[in-house]
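Might I ask for a little of your time on a matter of protein folding? The record follows directly beneath this note:
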Amino acid sequence: YGLMLIGLAANAAGSLLLPLLRYLPDGAPVLVAALAIMLLKGFAGGTFEVVMRALLLETSPPGQVARVVGWLAVSRNAGGLIGPVLGGWLFEVGGAKLPFLVGGGCAMPLVAALWCKQSSVEANSRGSTNSGSGVSRSDVSSSGDGQSGDGGSGSNGCGVAGRAERSHEPTTAP
């Protein structure tokens, strides 16, 4: 989750920085800053995309990989169709800055959610006696209430505790 978090956060930060270019002096400073920001966004977006796809494939239930890849393709294509229309409308409503601010602002809750999920996985890894590497299917399974695995009291600011901090009472599925 760490690389996904870095990629998403850097991409969002780049989107939020682009509108600030208008405050730089005209000429080379704007060009250099815009190039640097777009390089950051490209690298961050690529990093996020590769790690996200690998995590999706690794954590897909057996026999469901094709379905997951299909939904990923549908969501990417829908974003490609809706994004320009929404961006154009935002440009018409609020000028050149608004599409970047909305895009970067919409990514921030995702950054927070990914931060919480990473904290959850790290807490689960510290509390686990398994010495496996990477993220397992149980690490990324969620009960839908913001808590991972078998539940527990929040201890990391995101409402999720590590396995070592959880009670060992059996839980039942809802």
